Amino acid sequence: MRLVYATRKSLLALAQCRAVIARLRAIHPHVEWVEEQVVTSGDKIQDRPLADIGGKGLFVKEIEERLLDGRAQIAVHSIKDVPGVIPEGLAIVCVPAREDPRDALVAPRHASLAALPPGATVGTSSLRRLVALKNARPDLNVVPMRGNVDTRLRKVDAGEVDAIVLANAGLIRLGLGARVTELLAPEVSLPAVGQGALGIEAHEGDEATRALLAPLHDPVTGICVATERGVMIAVEGDCRTPIAAHAIRTAEGALHLRAFIANPDGTHCRTTERTIPWPSSESEAAGVGRDVGHHLLAQIS
Ligand SMILES: NCc1[nH]cc(CCC(=O)O)c1CC(=O)O
């Protein structure tokens, strides 16, 4: 059996999909795993904010085309980059155990967020991170910065900005965990929907592929990610609306969800928390998330 996996070419995309494929290869040594690298429009257009060019879906569009026309059978995504609505016929069929979901401050010449000098510049194009930074430190000068993780690290090292904020999960997967200056608590910067988790996309009805992937699925992460994505779907996943959601399974076995939205310029924001019995399915979890998302939307508009 031959199975083609489509991936973006960024260092992070390659590192994370190859780590997944290495696990699959160990479980299924008889399968021939073939890598197909794809340049997405999100990768091609680097000079404009994502919200202006069509949103994060641009990182998955060309990959999904390969799944749909059969040139590839699976794709490993950062679930954070996958829009709420997935093309007809495709599905996220496997969600492996989550890496640390927190945001990380990388400030090579400073000790912490609190220790940045007044008016320090922080590079991020994420509205969610901008609102979190401004809440913690209204004096900071937040400047737009896109680009892959490695590009952004080069810019902060070169002194273009004093600090950047990245997902800790991406740094860990790149072997760059030592670059973190400070991990930001969810109370300071609530993680993006799905941050730190991967999602493997395939044809919904491709039972053979689903069976191959099943050993990697982590049901707890699956429920948490479904809940968070429910919040995003309720808020329409408009990338001009800063949104964050983070779900965990508590020590008592309950689902705890914290969610946040702001208006597009970040001047009004709302956070809410809910603890409920552990959902019995991902669709039930998604319903909980949508409910919280609608509730937040009603408060902000
Ligand atoms: N938007 C790009 C992106 N998509 C996923 C990750 C990190 C890995 C993850 O969240 O799983 C990143 C980089 C970042 O936010 O620093």
From TrEMBL:
Pfam families: Porphobil_deam, Porphobil_deamC. Its cofactor is dipyrromethane. Binds 1 dipyrromethane group covalently. The modification S-(dipyrrolylmethanemethyl)cysteine is found at residue 239. InterPro entries: HemC, Porphobilin_deaminase_cofac_BS, Porphobilin_deaminase_N, Porphobilinogen_deaminase_C, Porphobilinogen_deaminase_C_sf. Its EC number is 2.5.1.61. It comes from the Bacteria. The porphobilinogen subunits are added to the dipyrromethane group. Tetrapolymerization of the monopyrrole PBG into the hydroxymethylbilane pre-uroporphyrinogen in several discrete steps. This is Porphobilinogen deaminase. It comes from Pendulispora albinea. The gene is hemC.
